[in-house]
Write a structure and sequence with these properties.
The chain has about 675 residues and is α+β, with helices and mostly antiparallel strands. About 20% of the residues lie in helices and about 30% in strands. The longest helix has 16 residues, at about 125-140. The radius of gyration is 28 Å and the shape is globular.
Length: about 675
């Protein structure tokens, strides 16, 4: 978003800040703000701009106390926060403030409870800790936190609707392009609210609850997932141009506000500023991770000037690793990259992937390659990836002629699905499993390379998934001949058509650590096999490896303690490694453990779900994690957070037993 008439502020860090005001925030004031759905954080004011009816603040979030509805990736860059024009001089550029902000829409932020904001030095750890402890204590007892953790999305028994109303809701859910018309009809029916005419002289418009009562879970089941959630309100966008820069200054939204018991108290159809829903188009500028756009432009310019060395210097390590096989950098780029198309790429809207920490880690784009004799061009994907603090250009190093051939085959397979019998597929492919560590030792990684090769004479269609190495992918047999159980947590997966050419080898994993998914805790001779993909395929070759004695890792020692007290019949899961791109997600450096008493219970699996963090101070724990987990205390490995669902009925003494098993004590000062 653009700002005008700004007084630019200098960046202030550490002791260069003016002396922070002593926080005078009372518990009642904090509770009122948090109950209203606000996020609570410390922000540095970068710039201030004034307009006739409002003022704008460009801020950088430097510390989050209560995340609320604030999307984590929003804290990665500057936010534009709106307030009434009268507050244009309330905040000084270059100064840090503790403030309450509500994210009304994907790109809409409002400064609320403005009289409760105060200056603060984020380097004053003692003051920050006191404020954090106060916010944690107050937020834990709010109805808002319970509402955010509610089981509404599990649905529930649907209301007894007339046939015409049920049909109206189904059409709204199934036909996004017609939501404008259908949303208005829903609100005009008994499912919507009416203005309360009992106080005609009131300056505030008050709405009555719908005549036909329904709750949050029922609305989600009938209308689909909301486009946005803000405090007590769910919003369904009714404008198909939400992802476009076309259209006027406003857009249509179906809004439903709920009470603490999740009953709908106000269902209305309203117009909102389009700018709050339509984000900027282009590469993200990451203040901490570098500028992805600058790297992309430099790469394009290097290709235009035929500066092959410069272009290669901007590429990722895996791309650079392929270069020695080519005669020169120019030969490499001519063979693997559509140079002309990249050089003239106009910067269309990229797809951005943000990790759990909110930092952008990958930005994906496609350029179109015209193919002679084909009506449609072929899309070639290239990516900007962030490794540490540096952005680099990345792409799959596949020769262009091979890439185009495979893309045309995939298009053919999708247009004319080919059903290959499992036995024929098994004869045409070969799965290979190769250990890559010199030796396997208890407590250390045990890594393999997993490949699939087409050993037949024809191209083969198959369904590719990034989750090939999840869902019990290995057959692991211990020294006694017993199968080692799979203990990793489930993952969401996506599956797409792909093709493998004759003689081609596809690498499913180049460094798969079997200990992240299987508990190998005793020395001896183990057998390892890959189960194939799809899972009804032939198994891979057998790898027999002698596992040497060693010291159990912290994760395995914790697992031993949890399994020692978990009731019989319960299931155990853990997540020690995180999906690709999630290296710095909440809990990284810690570990997730799921003790499941019943699958698919009301509102999800029933049991105890633990997160062990390496941090020892609650003030240092991830605030987004705390939206879902409660602090139990401190164990020798770090902080322990837990989420419990129906465990009191299934395992009444669960907390006492787990606290003894993990030696959990209250954190210092509590």
């Amino acid at each position: 978003m653009r700002l005008s008439c700004f007084a630019l502020g200098v960046l202030i860090v550490g002791s260069s800040l003016a002396r922070a005001d002593e926080p005078a925030l009372s518990e009642p004031a904090l509770e009122r703000a948090l109950e209203s759905g606000c996020s609570f954080f410390v922000a540095r004011i970068e710039a201030v701009g004034a307009e006739e009816d409002k003022c704008r603040f460009l801020v950088k979030v430097v510390r989050v106390f209560v995340a609320g509805d604030l999307a984590k990736q929003e804290t990665n860059g500057p936010l534009e926060i709106l307030a009434p024009a009268a507050y244009g001089n309330a905040l000084e550029a270059g100064t840090c403030y503790a403030m309450f902000v509500r994210q009304d829409a994907p790109y809409g932020f409002s400064w609320l409870f403005r009289d409760d904001a105060f200056k603060i030095d984020p380097a004053d750890r003692e003051t920050v800790k006191r404020l954090h402890d106060l916010a944690d204590r107050v937020y834990t007892r709010t109805s808002m936190l319970r509402f955010r953790r509610g089981k509404a999305l599990a649905g529930g028994e649907l209301p007894d609707l007339r046939e015409d109303l049920a049909s109206l809701c189904k059409q709204f859910k199934d036909h996004p392009a017609r939501r404008g018309e259908l949303g208005r009809r829903i609100v005009e029916s008994d499912l919507g609210s009416r203005v309360d005419d009992s106080k005609p002289l009131s300056a505030t418009r008050v709405y009555l609850p719908p005549k036909t009562p329904w709750n949050r879970g029922q609305m989600v089941a009938l209308l689909g997932y909301p486009s946005w959630t803000c405090g007590w309100t769910c919003l369904w966008c009714c404008d198909e141009r939400v992802d476009s820069d076309r259209g006027g200054g406003e857009m249509e939204v179906l809004s439903a506000t709920f009470d603490p018991n999740e009953r709908a108290v106000c269902v209305v159809y309203e117009m909102q500023e389009r700018s709050k829903w339509v984000g900027s188009i282009g590469f993200p500028r990451d203040a901490e991770g570098g500028d992805a756009a600058r790297v992309a432009r430099s790469f394009q310019e290097a290709l235009r000037r035929s500066d092959w060395g410069k272009a290669l210097s901007l590429c990722s390590q895996r791309v650079k690793a392929e270069t020695p096989g080519a005669d020169s950098a120019e030969a490499f780029f001519r063979r693997f990259v559509p140079v002309e198309q990249i050089a003239s790429f106009g910067g269309r809207r990229p797809g951005e992937f943000s990790s759990g920490s909110g930092h952008a880690t990958r930005v994906s784009c496609r350029v179109e390659i015209p193919v002679p004799g084909q009506q449609w061009s072929v899309g070639w994907p290239w990516t900007l990836v962030r490794v540490g603090q540096v952005w680099a250009v990345d792409f799959e190093p596949i020769a262009l002629d091979t890439f185009i051939r495979k893309e045309l085959l995939k298009r053919e397979f999708m247009d004319r699905p080919v059903r290959m019998k499992p036995e024929k597929f098994s004869r045409a492919v070969e799965f290979r499993l190769s250990p890559i560590d010199y030796e396997f030792v208890i407590g250390a990684p045990m890594r393999f390379r997993v490949e699939m090769k087409n050993v037949g004479d024809d191209p083969i269609p198959y369904r590719w998934s990034s989750a090939v190495m999840t869902g019990d992918p290995m057959l692991v047999t211990d020294p006694e001949g017993e199968t080692v159980p799979y203990v990793d947590a489930p993952y969401q997966i996506s599956v797409v058509w792909d093709a493998i050419l004759p003689g081609e080898t596809v690498v499913f994993a180049d460094s798969y650590d079997v200990t992240t998914q299987y508990r190998i805790v005793r020395p001896g001779r183990y057998r390892f096999q890959f189960r194939g993909w799809p899972r009804d395929s032939e198994l891979s070759n057998v790898c027999e490896v002698e596992v040497k004695p060693g010291i159990l890792s912290d994760a395995e020692r914790i697992s031993e303690r949890l399994l020692g007290v978990m009731p019989a019949g319960w299931q155990f899961e853990r997540m020690l490694s995180l999906p690709h791109g999630e290296e710095d997600a909440p809990g990284a450096g810690g570990r997730f453990f799921n003790l499941i008493g019943r699958r698919d219970g009301k509102g999800g699996d029933a049991g105890v779900f633990l997160v062990l963090l390496k941090e020892t101070e609650p003030a240092d724990a991830d605030p987004w994690l705390k939206e879902h987990y409660d602090l139990w205390g401190l164990c020798p490995c770090g902080l322990v957070y837990a989420r419990v669902n129906e465990a009191a009925q299934l395992w009444p003494s669960h907390r006492a037993q787990l606290e003894r098993a993990l030696e959990i004590k209250p954190p210092p000062g509590q």
